Amino acid sequence: MAEADTIDINREIAAEPRVADYVVDADVHVTPPPTFWAEYLSPRFRELAPRVESEGEYDFIMFEGTRRPVNLMQSQAGRAFDQYKNAGKLSDMRVGGWMPQRRLDDMDRDGIDKAIVFGGGPLSTGSLELYLDSFDAFNRWQSDFCADSNGRMFGVAFLTTVDVEQTIAGMRAARARGDVAVNLPAFPQSLSQFTKEGSVWQAMTGDPDGTRQYRDPEFDPLWAAAVDLDMPITFHLGARVSRYKDKTNFLPDVVMGKPAMLEPPAIMIYGGVFDRFPRLRLGLIESGVGWIPWACEYMDRTWHMQRHWTGCAIKHPPSHYFDQNIYASFISDPVGVELRHKPGGRNIMWSSDYPHSETTFPHSHRAIAENFRGVPTAERDWILAGCAEKFFGLGQARLPGGLGRNGDRP
């Protein structure tokens, strides 16, 4: 009997007791079946959309002459850890990844009141035009998904950085659809590095060794537009490529993906971006947070020692910008919670990562209890709700007891 027959991935899961009364999940995901592309791509590209074939224990995505099995690492919610597998059928995925009401049901079971939704795309294509169009297609699908959530889910649009004016246009379109943030590659993209094989990771990582950097004046209009639109910017991992299909390298890649997220904001800090745009908000999503206080102390010390010969004339020590401009999310990081009063520790947000392989679903409140032992209620509720509502601008936040009128941390 096939595994899909023995594990009912979409079985009913009983709700567990809540630890906190109000939770805003700062990072969840959607996993739409690839058949959605034929509806959301621009008409001239729809006949090129991926299609799905089934054979044995796998569904295969057929696209541009390639045939690859459906990746399940993006959708392990509902499985016990010893049931994880890398590839399989669409029926092996929990349907809350693309059905709004089923997602709301899972949020209710898991004690999640609101959620920030990260999707992605793009298509792994060798056509630059189709590649760019696929960003827009995925973003529109995701906005429609969130629009059916009764005000409980809020989308983050993924944008390219091959052309700053296109990025700004994408940001304006995202705001018009009701999205609450935009996600950029960790480093600017380079057209010279565009390939079919690397196109998907280019969307997450960009080109770390390219000639363009976010500190450059080229990107100042983008930061200005973000401030004018009150639109936060996020980097969702991506500073280091994880070989998620490689059993040998997956684990070291995953752990190194967290502290690697220091490089993009460090480039922006030392490059004076936050001096030029003090109201710009930047989020490091799924980065973990325990390493940030260490980084702030080290960056302050080395900047104080090395700023003269390097000509780094920023107005404040680097930790100032972490406390003023930079936010970060974690899934389970009790060390980071313990260090919340250190420089760099104030703007931290909890997330479940549903339905990815690190998700806390369906035991999120169990994870919350483990991460927040001994933490005063007001401080816990800031991390579980207030900080995310402030960063993503979710309107008049429901402020848990002890939070300031503007959602400021106690």
TrEMBL record:
Residues 24-394 form the Amidohydrolase-related domain. The keyword Lyase applies. The keyword tRNA processing does not apply. InterPro entries: ACMSD, Amidohydro-rel, Metal_Hydrolase. Keywords: Lyase. It comes from the Bacteria. It holds the Pfam family Amidohydro_2. This is Amidohydrolase family protein. It comes from Novosphingobium album (ex Liu et al. 2023).
